[in-house]
Amino acid sequence: MLYNPSQPASSSNPPLTPAVWQSGLLSLSGSPESALTTPQGIIPMVIETSPRGERAFDIYSLLLRERIIFLGTPIMDQVANTIIAQLLYLEREDPDRGINVYINSPGGSITAGLAIYDTMQMISPEVSTVCVGIAASMATVLLSGGTKGKRYCLPNSTVHMHQAQSGTQGAASDIQIAAREITRLQDLLRGILCENTGQPMDNIVRDSDRDNYLTPQQAMEYGLVDEILGVNREGQSEDSAEAADQ
After folding, report:
1. Element (H, E) at 207
2. Model-level pTM greater than 0.90?
């Protein structure tokens, strides 16, 4: 079932929700109408039946009800604002229940990412992070920022680290100012990774100096995540281990 922007909102044609916007299936720079006419704009809908009748949810809103947040886009201000709002909402709903954040993101804005990171650290619920696909650049910082013991990778995911980057243009004096700021932010991010991984700063500086791609096993050994889901401690898939026992 697809959302049809030409029809009034109803149970079969619900309005766009913040969860839909943050899902990454809509273009934040374009109109909802144009985004939803492309294959990328297909939003799965789920019909929930209750004594009060039927109600349609986009899949991301339904996941939010289960305390699951999905970061599946580059990290931009609008995406960050929506995820922060979801984190705060879930804390208000139940400050004692954990929140699961699934990450499949190439990274993005440092300041937007730090806004999400600080909110994750500030709220009362424990935040579990799961890398699906790829967590790169700023998304790796978010992945490492989950509650210790609850940071995960899927078996075929990828984790990526590199230097902070800036595309500043303009007068030489402005470029110098921007260079000082990006250096400050880079030192800040390295300090966060140092704290979250337990690695000495020299290792963080060396390993993030250039593009550095890590397998789930390498990410776990590095301290970015705590466990690879679907793989036992010996690195064998759970299905293979069960077959070997039979």
Report:
1. helix 201-207
2. no
Element (H, E) at 151: strand 151-153
Torsion sign over Cα 57, 73, 149, 155 = positive
Q: In the CATH scheme, what is the code of domain 67-236?
A: 3.90.226.10
Q: Which of 12, 27, 109, 162 is catalytic?
A: 162
At 160, which helix (H) or strand (E)?
strand 158-161
Q: Looking at 23, 137, 144, 208, which residue is catalytic?
A: 137
Residues with Cβ within 8 Å of residue 74, at least 6 apart in sequence: 105, 106, 107, 108
Q: Which 3 state secondary structure label does DSSP give 13?
A: coil
Q: For 155-177, how does the pLDDT look when each residue is reduced to its tens digit (9 = 90+)?
A: 999 999 998 877 777 888 888 88
pLDDT surpasses 60 at 243:
no
Q: Where are the domains of the chain?
A: 67-236
